[in-house]
Design goal:
With 170 residues, the protein is mainly alpha-helical. Helices cover 66% and strands 0% of the residues. It contains eight helices and no strands. The model has no long low-confidence stretch (mean pLDDT 94).
C-alpha cells in the first residue's frame, strides 16, 4: 500500500483479522465460518489499493478474483462477500458472521491506543480525501462516532464496551 495510507494499512488489516479470530472463537462459530470471517477481514480493505471511496466494492472484486483463482467454494465465497459488504459504513449486519466482522473492524474504538491512532486517520483523510478539520471539528466528529457506535456481538460488548466508554469520557 502507498505510504499515504497511515490508518487503513496492513497493521489495521492484521488487527481486524486478530479481532475477528478472537470474536469467532468466543461466538462459537464453526471452523468453516472462522475461515470465512478471517478471509473477509484480510480482504475487507484491499479495495483501498484502487479507490478510496466505496473501496468495499473493489475489495469484493479483489477477493472474488483471488478466491476464484484458487478454487474457493462459491457458497463460501458468497459469505466472504457479504461480510466485506457489511463493513460499509452504516450497513446493517444480516448474520452472526457479519456482526463479527463489523465488530472486529471497530475494535480499535476500545483500544488503549485509540487516541494515538487518530492522527494517522486524520492525516490519511487530509492527504487522500482533501478533508481538513479544525481540532474542534476533529474532536467532535470522533466523539460523536464513539458515542453513536454500538458493538453487535455479545462477545465484543463483553470485551470492549467498558474500554470504549473510557475512551469516550476522556
Amino acid at each position: 500500500m502507498k505510504p499515504e495510507f497511515t490508518f487503513h494499512n496492513l497493521q489495521h488489516t492484521l488487527n481486524v483479522m486478530d479481532a475477528a479470530s478472537q470474536l469467532s472463537v468466543l461466538e462459537k462459530v464453526s471452523d468453516k465460518e472462522k475461515e470465512i470471517v478471517r478471509l473477509a477481514a484480510l480482504f475487507h480493505d484491499t479495495g483501498f489499493t484502487r479507490v478510496y471511496n466505496f473501496h468495499e466494492d473493489e475489495s469484493i472484486h479483489i477477493a472474488s478474483t483471488y478466491l476464484t483463482k484458487y478454487g474457493y467454494p462459491k457458497e463460501d465465497m458468497e459469505q466472504v462477500v457479504k461480510c466485506i459488504q457489511s463493513t460499509k459504513r452504516g450497513a446493517e449486519a444480516q448474520s452472526k458472521l457479519e456482526m463479527i466482522i463489523q465488530d472486529a473492524d471497530m475494535a480499535h474504538l476500545a483500544s488503549e491506543h485509540y487516541f494515538s491512532l487518530l492522527p494517522a486517520l486524520r492525516k490519511e483523510l487530509k492527504v487522500l480525501q482533501d478533508q481538513d478539520f479544525t481540532d474542534e471539528e476533529w474532536f467532535k466528529q470522533n466523539l460523536d462516532f464513539l458515542l453513536s457506535h454500538s458493538y453487535k456481538t455479545d462477545s465484543a460488548k463483553m470485551l470492549w464496551d467498558e474500554s470504549k466508554k473510557k475512551c469516550s469520557s476522556q
